[in-house]
User: Fold this.
Amino acid sequence: MLIEVPQHFRHPGELFGAAASLRPAQVPDGVVEVDLRPCSFVRPPAVLWCVVYPLLAVQAGKNAVLLVPEGRGVAAYLKALGLFEVLNSGGVEVDDRGVRAGGTAKVILPLTRFETESDAEDLANMALDGLGTAGVGASNLYPVISEVFAELANNAVQHSESPIGAYGFVQFFEFEQGERFVCGVADGGIGIRASLERNPALRQKARYDWSAIELAVRERVSGTGDKTRGIGLYGVSEDMRVPGRQLIIHSGIGSLRLSEDVQSEARRTAMFPGTLAYASLPT
Assistant:
């Protein structure tokens, strides 16, 4: 199956066709090709899909191939972020035609696999050290980035049950409005709805992926049923209600976008096979 993506690939919600409805294990034939050749840019949330989907295809016994963007600037950015290396090491075929990492990418922490809470803590510390070494942006935001990344990473470890582990990154990214700190975490696990459904009290409230995400960002909501849990993601969502900040969560066929002036904007969207969380802050 050939999966075509938009020329301006911003996030997985923009996917269309079979890729928007099938999980990798459901692909009818034995080959999954992700075609990035026409892409003129690929934004960080979309990169996380490019990690998870092919790796899950390999885990399901498919042959997975990533067709690299023909634009060398886009390919150089993806290489600098570590996408090609991660996919190659996971058994995905990637021919980067010898493109060199570079361009405008300012990567603090490249795409990195983690599985345990200890791994997540180590990556958060690496990100904090990297931000300090870079000496770019507002230094008072460094702990915020590190703490937000650490919480998103811990959620992936504790709740996802992902067969491929989880992947995270931290970088500066140049948007039309200027440069921003961005960080993201994604896994190929059971998703937020299935996680919350473990708590019998939430099963009727979390009947859809989008309603489950809305629940997950509320205080003391957890699939464990433990009233001392459910603080972390709520805290992250509150941190994002500062001018200029944004949080996107995408799980299954639901997504939620939070910012200063948006209370909650949960909706049905194209499928993400697991959970993606992405935070963006002005420098």
